[in-house]
Specification:
- By secondary structure, the protein is an all-alpha fold.
- The chain has a domain at 83-267.
- It is 59% helix and 0% strand.
- It is built from 7 helices and no strands.
- It has helices spanning 45-79, 83-101, 104-115, 125-149, 187-231, 236-249, 253-260.
- Helix 3 (104-115) packs parallel to helix 5.
- It is elongated.
């Protein structure tokens, strides 16, 4: 008779495990597929969603394109200047330098830059009209500068000395014109000599300025008249703009008479 023997070890209870979370499937992670019915919705819902998305993107692209078309010309006008505007800016710069330096050559450079402005090359009517008015104002400002700095009492025959004659020393030594003031041993005579040198230097600067401004007056006034003749017509709007500019900028009666002759008889 066979005898059954028990080892004493209890059998492990079987613990039910989920389909995908056992030791065999731990590599799948805790969030695994859970069986169930597939999500349902209206037929064609996914297709409609993507169609709507495409339409929205198309509309947005059109709007962005319109914005670019509107903004780009504005930025271009603000960033880039026409050749005429560049010449005008150069002329304005030369005028500012003259006002700071009192160097007549700057005025010559200014009117030469203004002469390079060609209104006929301006395609935009508003730009052309504004450029014409700005050029007229600067031409008239050149005349006003001449009127301000030209001395009506200037005598071109009163020529300054090239070099100042120094006084004799205590020992009656006479040095040539332009000698170093330190050579004059008399303090009082030396101080007078130094003042004479300074005065003559200032007179030379004034003389040169007046001579050159007089020449510039002969050159600039005919050019202002030429600009008015070529740029302004007899239409009332042009005549009104010209009259207002002359009234606002020109006080010298000689200049006014010379410029007003270019107006129509009923505008004078």
């Amino acid at each position: 008779m066979l005898e059954r023997r028990h080892s004493g070890a209890r059998a492990l209870l079987a613990i039910p495990e989920s389909r995908n979370t056992g030791e065999r499937n731990q590599w799948l992670g805790l969030c695994s597929w859970v069986p169930g019915p597939a999500p349902t919705g209206r037929p064609g819902m996914t297709r409609e969603f993507f169609s709507t998305l495409l339409v929205t993107r198309s509309i947005l692209s059109v709007v962005i394109g319109l914005v670019v078309l509107i903004v780009t010309p504005i930025q271009t006008r603000a960033k880039f200047m026409t050749q005429g505007q560049e010449h005008l800016k150069k002329a304005q710069t030369h005028v500012a330098k003259f006002e700071a330096e009192r160097e007549p050559e700057r005025l010559r450079e200014a009117y030469m830059a203004l002469e390079n402005v060609s209104l006929a090359e301006e395609r935009d009517p508003r730009t052309r009209d504004q450029l014409r008015m700005d050029c007229l104002s600067l031409w008239l400002h050149l005349l006003e500068l001449l009127d301000h700095f030209l001395d009506p009492n200037f005598n071109p025959k009163d020529v300054p000395q090239r070099l100042v004659q120094p006084p004799p020393t205590r020992g009656d030594v006479v040095y040539p014109p332009g000698a170093d003031p330190a050579l004059i041993d008399d303090p009082t005579a030396r101080a007078q000599y130094e003042r004479a040198i300074t005065s003559n230097r200032e007179k030379t600067i004034r003389y040169r300025l007046q001579i050159q401004l007089g020449r510039l007056q002969e050159q600039i006034l005919p050019r202002v008249e030429k600009f008015i003749h070529n740029s302004y017509t007899s239409v009332p709007r042009d005549q009104a703009e010209l009259t207002a500019a002359i009234d606002a900028n020109i006080r010298n009666p000689v200049y006014r008479a010379s410029l007003l002759k270019h107006l129509e008889p009923d505008q004078k």
